[in-house]
Design brief:
Blueprint: H1 12-29, H2 47-57, H3 60-63, H4 70-74, E1 78-84, E2 87-92, E3 100-106, H5 111-121, H6 128-133, H7 138-145, E4 158-162, H8 172-187, H9 190-195, H10 200-218, H11 224-236, H12 262-271, H13 275-282, H14 285-296, E5 301-302, H15 303-310, H16 314-326, E6 330-334, E7 337-340
């Protein structure tokens, strides 16, 4: 019951119990439900989560209103929060019997701004793991967090809607979801780039090319490409292929006898490639494909053109062109453009 126009006081314990009860009910209807559950009262722990929250709090438009959502996140009121490209959808438990639906839309980073950020990242990022873990030079962090040219959205890039009857331009349910995003980025920082509509591979391009070259330079043993590919896969979380030897000609198979002798049959069985051997043979196809495209081009090709022609991700292509350059099959005519040596 409310007194003198004020709502009845509800303790934090009661709010948590109400949210937990509703979450249990929703799990039966929504199997993939993803609640925001904080391990402690700390709203964010990682560089990406903390920076997300700090970015929201530094704007006068949000500074006072966003605090309304902190307690909601802490007592588990954000029952479901999913991040998509340019959108955040959530269910937040309020004073009613049913959770409110919240939709937050965020503009993608403009192409010109993204290109500039790529240039500023050249030579400063070592791996995808370091990027997502926030392990990069302080100067790069300042570039990312820059109010006008950085990665984080300003109020003009954010729009939101909530099904609650609150007349405020930013209700506590929306504020709770905005803080919930910070908590979600603690779990998976890559969602930040998905939300902003950009690809982490673009920022890592220089690091991948540089690392691939160093790994190939380091090893001189025959079959060293296999070792390098394993290293690259560990560093960047990508699948690399083996480089075929373009200098060797394929051996033609001898003509088959009309009737094979028992000795010939035994030899044929022994020479039949296993599934593993067949997979290893196929692994060179990507490199051969890229080599053919570049050597056939009269004007040279860049990574974007190769990605469009082959369908391979840029991280894989950077590894391939480095190995082809090492073998002397292709060369750089200008930065990022490759042609036949």
């Amino acid at each position: 019951m409310a007194y003198w126009g004020f709502p009845k006081y509800v303790s934090v314990a009661d709010k948590k119990a109400k949210a937990a009860k509703k979450l249990k009910q929703l799990k039966k209807k929504i199997p993939d439900i993803k609640p925001v559950i904080l391990e402690t009262n700390t709203l964010a722990r990682t560089w990406w989560g903390k920076s997300w929250n700090k970015n929201l709090e530094r704007y006068a438009d949000y500074e006072n209103r966003i605090e309304r959502g902190r307690s909601y996140v802490r007592h588990g009121a954000v029952l479901d929060l999913k991040i998509h490209s340019g959108k955040v959808r959530a269910l937040v438990m309020g004073s009613g019997s049913q959770p409110y639906e919240v939709l937050i839309s965020i503009d993608a980073i403009k192409k010109k701004q993204w290109k500039e950020l790529q240039k500023q990242c050249e030579g400063q990022l070592k791996s995808l793991q370091d990027l997502l873990a926030g392990k990069f030079p302080k100067g790069l962090g300042e570039i990312f967090f820059n109010e006008k040219t950085g990665l984080f959205p300003s109020p003009k890039n954010i729009s939101f809607d909530c099904s609650c009857p609150d007349w405020a331009s930013m209700c506590k349910h929306v504020a709770a979801v905005l803080y919930g995003v910070g908590a979600r980025l603690d779990e998976d920082p890559s969602l930040f780039f998905k939300l902003r509509g950009v690809n982490t591979e673009d920022l890592l391009a220089g690091a991948i090319e540089d690392t691939a070259g160093k790994l190939l330079e380091k090893s001189k043993k025959k079959g060293a490409n296999v070792i390098d590919d394993a290293d690259l896969s560990d560093i960047f979380g990508i699948d690399m292929d083996m480089t075929p030897d373009f200098g060797k000609k394929k051996k033609t198979a001898p003509a088959a006898a009309a009737v094979a002798t028992p000795k010939q049959k035994k030899k044929a069985v022994a020479s039949t490639p296993t599934r593993k051997q067949s997979n290893q043979k196929k692994s060179g196809n990507a490199t051969a494909h890229v080599a053919e495209l570049i050597t056939a081009s009269t004007t040279g090709m860049n990574i974007d053109q190769l990605a469009e022609k082959t369908g391979y991700v840029r991280t894989k292509l950077y590894g391939i062109v480095q190995r082809l350059k090492k073998k002397g099959i292709i060369k750089n005519t200008s930065y990022g453009v490759y042609e036949k040596s």
